[in-house]
Structures are given as structure tokens and as C-alpha cells.
Write a sequence for this structure.
């Protein structure tokens, strides 16, 4: 009799956003005449920029002609895209990353979930808390997190690095042994980030202790402040201790287009074994490349016209972020983030739990956000709102909260 | 100090097709005036059918307008595609599979590689031999195959089920304990298949012994004979013991478009745990859906016009298969497959090894095929040619082999 991977059974309940969807559906059923505004899940609302649409049409036409048809893509991505990424996202920022250190994928969620396969089952994992659930759940499935304690909301073998208003959202370096550290900066869900000097301390720590950093830079395009790094490879020594994962979902609205990439520097070795070679083998064995049409869309992101259009798109969302942040602050709420990231992380009023505030906001204002506790134990007492809505909805949400 | 997954280090050498590519590049460098015809890797050459191109243009336009823009897709795939699949690939064949048992993905290679995550690390794996390398390599990476013995070309903990001319390409049922059995029918690389009655024996065996069958039906569109099943769910009891993986790469030429799906029936349970729920959790955690544009392309595959166009495309490749099979048979080679699959599996002449014949064919005729030994120890002494080339190249290849 075959046996299942018992680690799956350790995962508690349903995924955060499924629970929210169910609660909202129930509310809408009971209040058919109430308008509901969704500022919960981090999905974009602006259409794909014109120059990208044009590039996709061209690529679709190519696929329809024998002379220009493209079959299997190169395992690790087309050169035209890898070169554009290396040039714009790295060399122009002074980070020495070459095209063949870039692995094109179908999205940062896949890469975030799959990257842990490279590590031994007994590696100790550290995450900032609150955190994007994929890092934790994918390691639970691989048996690295021990058991879940419902009372504390914690996994027995996972090292939590609290990141809250108490430490000004600058987590302390780990004080216990750990092997693999996940950092998402600018951060989902808190919307806060670290300066270059602060991140350098993490890189130095990792090199000193022999840790590996998985650096998720999905929200990089939203950075507005000068001293915030756009890639971990701006830090000295990062190529010896860090893998960086990037997304096209938030800078170019590709949540439904699906494209991402991961950088594994050639210098990155563990006892002589190249992680670059391991990830290449993983890609070659369990993945068959991102669609040609989508990789051409990715290339257009880096064209002069594409960059111009996307700068406007990011500015649109960041104006939403400003409206939410200033609106809520003006009402007396404590708000964080929203300056270098499209998320506003607010303290719940009156020491309400995150889920109680979720209910109050839904019932009182018809606004859907995300309970902070869904991102980890240190998220309790916080609440996330996203700036990815349409302007009119965002304004209406703030107005409804004001009247609540 | 973090530690790597040591199983990766057990994988021998490079991927089969990388080795071939290097040999061909070397030959071309030394013989710049010789024409090389590639009938090696199973990549298609015909452009995407007009009705699918048209559907993708429409979907691209939708993505460019706020009113019709699509962000994150439903985790498990859009209903329009899941319903089309359930209707055409299952209900119309008398197989009772519902849309919510279908999980849309970015391709059968990903699903084939990832599906093993659902099983415990100590499950014993069985594969037919020769076999698509992904099944083996993905289980090696998870530590299920033991160690590799270069002399025999075998993994110590893997159960091999020889499938050769000696048993008329009908493998014997396992005579030792095993838990998970991979079957690819019609088969890559042998191009042979089983009848419905023969497959029913495997389903009965799996239900009796408590085994799970991973059924790869990537080449289903090439079936021409009446008594060959188009899905394992045509067999009684298969919903209690089988997961089916399907590709759009070979029936619709999507090798560079990327789309596939996996069926996990709701009945399929292991000691009360639903594998459907487990795969849903895996999808929800480590995958973010196939692109909207590509799912619309998949829907067009099932339209009346799409079906008509693709029937012609499959017929084109099957005429190539006939030309190769009859051409080689006429020259005195022993050939198999090519009737229900786009692969011709030939015995090497004069007891040559697969790689020796690879060299002779490349040097003597400028034709690239795939050495059978690359697919497993029982592939030694065989050679694979694909029918996915262009007609003129296929004809030229046969002519060059004739003159060799």
C-alpha cells in the first residue's frame, strides 16, 4: 500500500485567502444591496501596458507561422529576456549579475515554493514574522517546520524573527542557530523595508554564520527612497550567500500573465557544490520554460516605452497608497508602509484582534482587507490594506471607513 | 552552515538531450558544409493552428483593457477550460470525470516532476524501462531511488519493468512490492501502447495491491487503433488508483506555449486522505495558475474549428511516422511504434550500442536521433526517431539513411 507525504496533514485549516473569500461571499449573500470594496488580496487592477500588449500580439503572430514558430524554450529562459534583466535590474544598479545567472520562470510564487528543494531536510528555517505564507507552507510540506501549535500559531521547528512596531519593523539578527533565512524586502505584508546599511548586516551575518538568504524582491519597483537597496546584490558579499527571487506581477501587472525569475550567482557554493548547477538541474527536470509569448512580454517591460508606461502604473498605485495611509492616519489610526511598497499595515484600534477588525471593517464599511494574524503570530493586532485597487474604489473605501 | 539536498549529487552526468546537443554542435563545427536533420528531441515544428492564434489575440486584447483585464487566475484553472476538458477528453469517451477533478497547469513536465511530492519518502517506485527520464530523476531528487550503478545503468531502489521486443512491448506486472507505478501510454520512447484489456489488468493489480498509478497520456491524440484506451479512466476502478497527466504539447503543438493538466479523482484516497485535496493544496501553495491568454488558447483546442485543424496537424505528423517506419522497415531495420504514437523505436543493426548507432547515423547520414540507452537500461540496442519534423526534412532523412 502506497503512503502519502504526512507533512501535508500538518498544515492547519485552509489558506488565508480562501477563508476571507468565504466570509465575503457570506456577507454579500446576507447583504445583497451593500457594495463591497476589496483591498485584501494583492492582485492588481490596471490593464497590461500598451507596449507589452503590442509585443504579445507580435509574438502570437510569430507562433502562427512555421518560419517564426517557437517550440521548447531554452530551459533557463530566452537570452533576449535574460540579457534585458541583467542589464536593467542589475548592471545599471551596479550589481554584477550576468545573464546566465538568471533563471526565468512562471512566477515568483513557484520559485519561492520550489527553492527549498535544494536544501537538506534537516536545515533550520528562519522567517521574519509576519511573513508571506508560501515560505512557511512549502517548508512544512518538506518536513522542516516540526509541528503546529494552534494556541501560539507557531511551528515548533521554525525560527520566527518578529517584525513589528516594537522594533520599528527592523528585525533582530537571529540569536539561535539557523540555516536558511527568508527575507522579503520591501516587505509583504508590512510594507516596510530595510536600508542598504541594515541589509548589509544581514549579508555579513549570513556569510559569517554560513547561512543562506532567500531574498524576495517582488515589490522592488515601489521603492521611492534613496537609501533602500533595489537588489540584495548591492550589498558586499551577497553573491556568496543569497538567492534573489523577482516577480513581474507587481511592477508590470503580470498576476494573470505569469512571469518571474530567480538569480543564483555562480559563486554560491555549499561545500564546493554549486547551487547554480543544482537549480539548473531542477529547472531542467521539473520545468519546461515560460511561454515564448510571455517571455516577449517580459522583454517589453524593459523597453524604453515599457519602462515609461510602467512608471506611470506604479505611480498610480502609489498614489492609492498615499491616499490610504494619509486618510487612515488622519482618522487616528497607526499606519506603516505604503512609502516603498504598495501595502499599508495598520494597527487595529482598541487592541482588537485582526479577525475582529476584519469583521468590523467588512460590516461597518464594506471594505475587505487581510487580517495580520494570517501572516504569522506577530501579525496579530495588525491589518493589511493594498494599494492595488482602482482609484475610485480606494477613495470610496477610505470614505466608508471614515464614516464607520 | 546550511546543507544541500544530497540526492541531487547522485544524479549522473548531464541530461540526455544536453549530451546530444553537444555532440551535434561538435559535428557541425567539424563539418560546416553538411546538412544536419534533427529527429531527436520530441519538439514539434508545425505552427500553432489559426483558431488558437485567433483566440490568443482576443485574450491579449482583453488583458489590455481595464474592463476585461484578468489578474490572478483561479488556482486550479478557469472553469471555461476545465469544463471543455471534462466534456471532450472524458465524458465523450464515457469516462466520468468532472471539471473540478481537473487541475490546469503549465505543462505535463512540471506535473510529472511534482506529483511525487504527494507520497512519502519511503514509497517504492516502479517504472517501465525504457522510460521518460523525468519520472526517475524527480524521484531521485526526493531520495526514493537509492544509488546509481554506472555499470548496469540502474538505481538500487527503483523497480524496472522491461518493455522490449522480447515481451512485444507489454511489460509484466511487478513481481516485487512497489507503491507508485508510472505508466506512459502511448509510450515515450517506444511508441508502443497497451490495449484496453491489457491496461485493465494494471488497474486491477493496483487496486488489489494498493498501488497508485501515475498515468501519462501526453501522446493520446496519436491513437489510431480502436482497442487502445484514450484515458485510463476508461478502465473500471481507475478512479480509485490512478492520477492522469495530460499535455497540450503534442496534440496542439504547445511545446512553447505551455499548458497541461492533471486529473486527480475525488474517490482517490490513501487511508482516508484525499489526494485531490493534497494536490489542490500543492497547487495553491507552489503555483499561481497558467496564464489567462494560454488558458484561452487551451479552450480553442476544444472548439469545433480547433479540433478540425488539430486533426490535420496530427495527421501530418503521423504521415511522417508512416514514412519513417515504412522507409526503415523497407531497408531491413526492425521498427516498432509509429502507429498510435509519433515515435519510431528501432532496433540498432548488428547489435550496435545505442550511442554507436547515434554516431554512425550522424556521421553517415547527418541525422540526429536519440539513443535508446538514454531512456534506461532496457533501451540499450534501440534508437528513437520522432515524427515531429517537417515533411521535407523527414523525407530527406530517410533518403540519407538509405544511402548510408
Amino acid at each position: 500500500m502506497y503512503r502519502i507525504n504526512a507533512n501535508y496533514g500538518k498544515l492547519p485549516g485552509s489558506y488565508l485567502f480562501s477563508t476571507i473569500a468565504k466570509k465575503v461571499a457570506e456577507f454579500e449573500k446576507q447583504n445583497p444591496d451593500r457594495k463591497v470594496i476589496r483591498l485584501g488580496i494583492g492582485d492588481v487592477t490596471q490593464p497590461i501596458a500598451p507596449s507589452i500588449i503590442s509585443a504579445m500580439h507580435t509574438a502570437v503572430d510569430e507562433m502562427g507561422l512555421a518560419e517564426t514558430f517557437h517550440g521548447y524554450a531554452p530551459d533557463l529562459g530566452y537570452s533576449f529576456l535574460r540579457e534585458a534583466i541583467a542589464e536593467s535590474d542589475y548592471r545599471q544598479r551596479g550589481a554584477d549579475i550576468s545573464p546566465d545567472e538568471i533563471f526565468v520562470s512562471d512566477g515568483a510564487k513557484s520559485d519561492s515554493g520550489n527553492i527549498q528543494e535544494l536544501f537538506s531536510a534537516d536545515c533550520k528555517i528562519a522567517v521574519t514574522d509576519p511573513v508571506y505564507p508560501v515560505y512557511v507552507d512549502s517548508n512544512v510540506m518538506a518536513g522542516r517546520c516540526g509541528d503546529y501549535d494552534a494556541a501560539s500559531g507557531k511551528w515548533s521547528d521554525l525560527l520566527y524573527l518578529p517584525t513589528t512596531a516594537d522594533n520599528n519593523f527592523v528585525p533582530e539578527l537571529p540569536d539561535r542557530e539557523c540555516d536558511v533565512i527568508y527575507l522579503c524586502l520591501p516587505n509583504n505584508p508590512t510594507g516596510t523595508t530595510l536600508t542598504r546599511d541594515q541589509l548589509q548586516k544581514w549579508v555579513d551575518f549570513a556569510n559569517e554564520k554560513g547561512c543562506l538568504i532567500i531574498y524576495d524582491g517582488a515589490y522592488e519597483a515601489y521603492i521611492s527612497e534613496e537609501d533602500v537597496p533595489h537588489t540584495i546584490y548591492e550589498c558586499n558579499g551577497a553573491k556568496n550567500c543569497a538567492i534573489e527571487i523577482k516577480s513581474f506581477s507587481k511592477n508590470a501587472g503580470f498576476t494573470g500573465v505569469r512571469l518571474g525569475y530567480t538569480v543564483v550567482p555562480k559563486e554560491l557554493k555549499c561545500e564546493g557544490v554549486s547551487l547554480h548547477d543544482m537549480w539548473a538541474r531542477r529547472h531542467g527536470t521539473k520545468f519546461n520554460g515560460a511561454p515564448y509569448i510571455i517571455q516577449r512580454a517580459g522583454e517589453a517591460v524593459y523597453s524604453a516605452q515599457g519602462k515609461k508606461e510602467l512608471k506611470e502604473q506604479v505611480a498610480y498605485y502609489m498614489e492609492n497608497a498615499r491616499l490610504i495611509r494619509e486618510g487612515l492616519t488622519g482618522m487616528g489610526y497607526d499606519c506603516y508602509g505604503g512609502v516603498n511598497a504598495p501595502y499599508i499595515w495598520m494597527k487595529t484600534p482598541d487592541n482588537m484582534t485582526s479577525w475582529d477588525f476584519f469583521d468590523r471593517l467588512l460590516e461597518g464599511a464594506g471594505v475587505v482587507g487581510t487580517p495580520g494574524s494570517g501572516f504569522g503570530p506577530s501579525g496579530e493586532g495588525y491589518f493589511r490594506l493594498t494599494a492595488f485597487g482602482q482609484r475610485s474604489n480606494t477613495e470610496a473605501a477610505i470614505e466608508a471607513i471614515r464614516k464607520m
Remarks:
- The domain at 53-303 of chain A is CATH 3.40.640.10 (Aspartate Aminotransferase; domain 2).
- The CA atoms of residues 74 and 203 of chain A lie 32 Å apart.
- The radius of gyration of chain A is 21 Å.
- The longest strand of chain A covers residues 242-247.
